Amino acid sequence: MSNIVYIQVSIFPIAALLAVMDNLKRDMSFSWRRRCLESIMKLMVCIMIFNVVCWCLNGREGSLAKGILWVGNTAYYVFMLYMAFLWFLYVYDKVTNGNGQMGISMFVKAVPLVVSLVILAAGMVRPMIFYIDDENLYQRGPLHIISTVVAAGYISAACILAFVGMLRTQEREEKRQYGYLVFFGVFPLIGGIVQMLLYGTDLLWPMTSVALVMVYINIQQQNVSRDGMTGLNNRRRLDQYIDVLSKEHIKEPLCYSIMDIDYFKEINDNFGHHIGDELLIKFAGILQETLGSIGFVGRMGGDEFIAILNNIDIEVIKSKIDDMKEKIEDYNYNKICKLEISYGYFN
């Protein structure tokens, strides 16, 4: 592939990602997941830029070209590994309802990344991941496979997590969301296989960019049917879900559960709306964690929530509600303003 064609193949994905990042800046959400996705896109742009630069300078004479090749290829591997790691955390955070960026376990997950970066740094002393030969040509080092395996491992692990999440959830919209996360790993896989079979082609990163844009578009579609504060399904999505149930003439038993937070107005008046918002977000997280995997959960408005469970045994529902009450009790431990709820359910 000539340098001009290589640049042309890369410039359109770069432009698409820059456009998406510009839209992300206008997003008023400051969640960790949004910031993580923006960082992944920035890394993708840097990866493709360094990839093009190294391709164009590969084999060029001169010490300057050799220095740029060393720096460019090193940056390429660093950004590639970090991007794969961030994507794994992003999917893990989605599957575990907000636990991807927290806790000591994050450092355990980063061990393969750190090992790969140490090996890459050791390449300054002797060839490890890559080296530039006397003719200024890029050559793979004896441990090149490690960086590939680590990056592919993070992406593959994210795909498996998303696939498991898709199997566990009963809610159609959630399945669709997880499906997009699974396909994020499939697209780079296809591009990488074609690139390996046809040396000189560049499809890995353009295909990865396509997958990222698809994930972003899906997120934008989700925002239309998501409650901005809690992240649960909103009233609009609830109406759509009930409409689908009625049209499909569901014969399996349905269980409806209506819940609200006790003394919510008094909490806002006495402790402030920020405490009330904290309770809404906390209860939404507990509700999603306990019932979200087996049915539809949403916020109807104010402090009112709903869960619709399809073809679930009543004993399972009772067990899940007991889990929910236990998590609420754990949250209330040593809290001045306690979270208390009223609920009812019927078939």
Mean pLDDT: 83
User: What structural class results from the helix and strand content?
Assistant: alpha+beta
What is the helical fraction, as a range of percent?
55-70%
Gyration radius, in Å: 24 Å
User: Would you list the SSEs in sequence order as H and E?
Assistant: HHHHHEEHHHHEHHEEHE
Give a description of the structure.
By secondary structure, this protein is an alpha+beta fold. Helix 2 runs antiparallel to helix 3, helix 2 packs antiparallel against helix 8 and helix 6 packs antiparallel against helix 7. It is elongated. The mean pLDDT is 83. The chain has a 4-stranded antiparallel beta sheet with strand order 4-5-3-6, sandwiched between helices. The chain has 12 helices and 6 strands.
Summarize this structure briefly.
This protein has 347 residues and is an alpha+beta fold. Strand 1 and strand 2 form a beta hairpin.
Tags for this model:
10% strand; two-stranded antiparallel sheet; 347 residues; elongated; alpha+beta; single chain; four-stranded antiparallel sheet
Topology:
Blueprint: H1 3-25, H2 32-57, H3 63-95, H4 105-109, H5 111-122, E1 130-132, E2 138-140, H6 144-168, H7 172-197, H8 204-224, H9 235-248, E3 254-261, H10 264-271, H11 273-291, E4 295-301, E5 304-310, H12 314-332, E6 341-346
Antiparallel strand pairs: 1-2, 3-5, 3-6, 4-5
